[in-house]
Structure to design on (465 residues):
RNA sequence: GGCGGCAUAGCCAAGCGGUAAGGCAUGAGCCUGCAAAGCUUUGAUCCCCGGUUCGAAUCCGGGUGCCGCCUCCA
């Protein structure tokens, strides 16, 4: 397969460090608030990449960290009058719950910053020994960016001299130098270390965890693929890369993958604009699977402008998949190697070309409906179709629900019973050729937001949006 | 100011030099007691200007317009 490397700025054939194995690390959330649609998009992109790599036969080590200690967490804990642990646990659980609802699988490794202090200290010591880091009088430890001749090569910047001069620390050797360790002298949240009480810098966490928990330690790179949102390229990934390069003498990642932003009305979500859209709120209005299908529907590198019209159009597209699944209902899956699967992997293997992938699915649905109209009883063909749907479910993570329940989500049993009763009465009226009566019942159902469809196998119903 | 991305039918969106995928919406037809679902069908020369080429949405140059990073950020 090929992947677009956002550092080399070109699509490259993917060749893993180790035969048949892939190490993939993605920057996860800082757990101080609920996940928004941007977190969802990023998680979905790398969940898809992981599934595709697995479908290609790779053994994938997929790591996604949890930053569970950070100024934002500390501030929130102070505002709410509870401990940082409570905040971190609350939002870690929320993150897991929200991601599960859109079909994001748990990573194989999920290291937490607070449980990785020791490897971080080891890396700091290493950097100090190699003169890549220095301690200032208050105990803070900084990375010396001038000591890394490749600094800024990742983000392709010329110099960092024109950055804004907020919070000037006079003892820093260069404005570009960043903290590896921040000494804590009061009663604040801190960890014991060989450098005294303090807290680790954010950038350090990823480098140290990768080195300790993820890297297979073969070849010129720590891991195969490092991913994250496009806004992390600088300074976060630049700094990670520098730390790893200087501490270990190998580069951090062979491939860098960055996903585009989710925007609302064309603008990036941010606290200051007040246009954050939390995933949990989206889930109140839309099914998690529909959100997955929608958020995954355009290429991961481009920005994604979230809006309800497109989401509804997207849902209608997914509906077609489930209507086909209805037509196959009752068959037991019996996996057949399909040409469809090869086509699917070929499209996805081209830097996750989901547009082409979705088009393949649409074409499958179209040709399947046509063929089933012609020859509804072709058992072999039906098995092939079912296998294809199974492939979609495994690789793309949607289409796995019971097709009847998919169209009936959110309705209580009493309503469902009422609908069934009305349909039974209508069927009787139809049998008696009492069409005014049967149409009146259909109007009643329509008013309830229910659409019905008569088929050879009986009358089915769906919720209309 | 520095760096980067994007601009394709009403909307979303592929395309990576050889004559514009797919979906949603719309109009028409088939099917249906009538519908729904399904099927068929309807529509763009690709932001503008110049260049390279037998040939460009695709390459080069110059514009215009959006967006992002450079501060915590998926």
């Amino acid at each position: 397969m090929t992947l677009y490397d956002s550092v080399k700025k070109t699509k490259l054939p993917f060749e893993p460090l180790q035969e048949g194995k892939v190490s993939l690390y993605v920057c996860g959330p800082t757990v101080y608030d609920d996940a928004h649609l941007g977190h969802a998009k990023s998680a979905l992109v790398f969940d898809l990449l992981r599934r595709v790599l697995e479908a290609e036969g790779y053994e994938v080590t997929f790591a996604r960290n949890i930053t569970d200690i950070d100024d934002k967490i500390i501030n929130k804990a102070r505002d709410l009058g509870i401990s940082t642990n409570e905040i971190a646990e609350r939002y870690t659980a929320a993150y897991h719950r929200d991601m599960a609802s859109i079909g994001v699988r748990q990573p194989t490794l999920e290291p937490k910053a607070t449980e990785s202090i020791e490897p971080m200290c080891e890396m700091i010591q290493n950097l100090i020994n190699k003169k890549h880091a220095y301690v200032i009088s208050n105990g803070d430890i900084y990375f010396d960016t001038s000591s890394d001749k490749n600094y800024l090569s990742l983000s392709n910047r010329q110099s960092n001299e024109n950055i804004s001069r907020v919070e000037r620390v006079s003892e820093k050797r260069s404005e570009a130098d960043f903290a590896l360790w921040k000494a804590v002298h009061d009663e604040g949240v801190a960890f014991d270390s060989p450098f005294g009480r303090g807290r680790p810098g954010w950038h350090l966490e990823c480098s140290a965890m990768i080195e300790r928990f993820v890297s297979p330690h073969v070849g010129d790179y720590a891991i195969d693929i490092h991913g994250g949102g496009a806004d992390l390229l600088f300074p976060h990934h630049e700094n990670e890369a520098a730390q790893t390069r200087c501490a270990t003498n190998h580069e951090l990642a062979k491939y860098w993958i960055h996903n585009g932003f989710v925007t609302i009305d064309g603008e990036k979500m941010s606290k200051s604009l007040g246009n954050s859209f939390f995933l949990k709120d989206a889930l109140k209005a839309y099914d998690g699977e529909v959100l997955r299908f929608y958020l995954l529907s355009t290429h991961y590198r481009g920005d994604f402008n979230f809006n309800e019209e497109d989401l509804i159009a997207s849902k209608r597209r997914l509906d077609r998949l489930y209507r086909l699944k209805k037509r196959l209902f009752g068959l037991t899956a019996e996996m057949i190697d399909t040409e469809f699967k090869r086509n699917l992997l070929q499209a996805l293997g081209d830097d996750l070309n989901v547009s082409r992938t979705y088009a393949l699915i649409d074409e499958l649905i179209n040709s399947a409906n046509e063929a089933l109209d012609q020859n509804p009883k072709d058992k072999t063909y039906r098995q092939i179709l079912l296998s294809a749907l199974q492939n979609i479910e495994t690789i793309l993570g949607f289409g796995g629900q019971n097709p009847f329940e998919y169209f009936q989500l959110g309705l209580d049993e009493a309503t469902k019973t009422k609908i069934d009763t009305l349909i039974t009465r209508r069927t009787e009226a139809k049998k008696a050729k009492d069409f005014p009566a049967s149409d009146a019942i259909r109007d009643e159902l329509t008013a309830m937001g229910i659409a019905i469809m008569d088929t050879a196998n009986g009358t089915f119903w769906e919720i209309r949006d």
The longest strand of chain A covers residues 221-229. Residues 172 and 377 of chain A are 76 Å apart (CA to CA). Residues 16-264 of chain A form a domain with the Rossmann fold fold (CATH 3.40.50.620).
